[in-house]
Amino acid sequence: MATAGKVIQCKAAVAWEPNKPLVIEEIEVAPPQADEVRIKIVATAVCHTDLYHLFEGMPKDGFPAVLGHEAAGIVESVGPEVTEFQPGDKVIPLFLAQCKECRFCKSPKTNQCELAWTRIRQGAMVGKESRFTCKGKKVLQFAGTSTFSEYIVIHQIAVAKIDPAAPLDKVCLIGCGICTGYGAAVNTAKVEPGSTCAVFGLGAVGLAAVMGCKAAGAKRIIAVDLNPDKAEKAKVLGATDFVNPKDHNKPIHEVLAGMTNGGVDYSVECVGNVEVMRSALESCLPAWGVSVIVGWTEMFDIKIRPPHLISGRTWKGSMFGGFKGKDGVSEMVKAYLDKKLQLEEFITHNMTLDQINDAIELMKQGKWYHILVLFINQWVHFK
Ligand SMILES: NC(=O)c1ccc[n+]([C@@H]2O[C@H](COP(=O)([O-])OP(=O)(O)OC[C@H]3O[C@@H](n4cnc5c(N)ncnc54)[C@H](O)[C@@H]3O)[C@@H](O)[C@H]2O)c1
Ligand SMILES: [Zn+2]
Ligand SMILES: [Zn+2]
What processes in GO biological process is this protein linked to (predicted)? Predict the structure, then answer.
């Protein structure tokens, strides 16, 4: 490619400071170094974790940054030592790397690669390395990915090669929300056929958890959200009941216990609120209920009375749905191409990078939106 080995100037949405709109800027993206891949991003979606960094976590050392971590694209060029990828490959960047060499990658018990940015980050949700500059300043790569940019550079252990037949404007969702929610039900909770489940929070992650509970054979799936507009989509994806905590004057775990003869078998928290995490645990049957925390916050502690666990409940956490990065993404892309996974249902808007602040605003409002896909570059050429 004509751009290989050269600095690329392109558009990116830069978060200069917390709690402010993103600014579309011309940035410079350096060529990939050893073991790195430069990717032309074709489609990216917005996940609540991007909003968390910008409006909730707001770490002092986390700006300026380019947000975004749920995307698909095409390899533009590769650095020295890269053998797995070639220009033209369709790929999904991974916020959770899989080096395949470390003790964690070699264990079936975890997806937490020791080399992933999540382990080597500075404290903020940004890594130490970045190939971005803008107006003479280094711009950080959020979640190691930064997909609100036309081009990114990323380590090859954090890239999944996908089937060339995959439509990038759909499978981009597999880069975070879909794997996270679906896997939390299937891999982490290990939902059993005939069981009763509750999913708290019906953004893309929670809706994917509903889809995972259904795929695992759950008999009853109770979807819980403060926003009544989320009920319809949850039902399309497999929810059998919808409960709005605002409609009840007693704690939500008591409402669910009343509906389920004492509690659900599995609950999945997809909000990122420590009170909801506690409610999700308490909504489980005391004898054997399993509750999975998926929602993200680093700001508050969670509290629970010991008997709530001593009685027999299990409390678990799940990152990226327990999927190992590269393996999980290719498995889920295959499931989509085999028509075993719904993705279209999650897409409510197609927008451009220039509309990124509108996309963020829509997501903040919640309304009836579930996820927003932004088509950056000339994505139509790559479908
Ligand atoms: N663990 C991981 O690997 C991982 C990956 C991706 C996202 N996340 C986290 O998952 C969470 C969900 O992400 P998303 O993109 O689907 O978010 P979202 O903002 O689209 O959806 C959150 C939903 O929760 C609902 N909600 C808010 N307060 C509630 C309450 N008290 N009770 C019930 N529902 C409530 C909102 O109405 C909304 O529908 C976020 O915290 C995000 O950071 C975690
Ligand atoms: Zn995400
Ligand atoms: Zn590893």
Answer: formaldehyde catabolic process
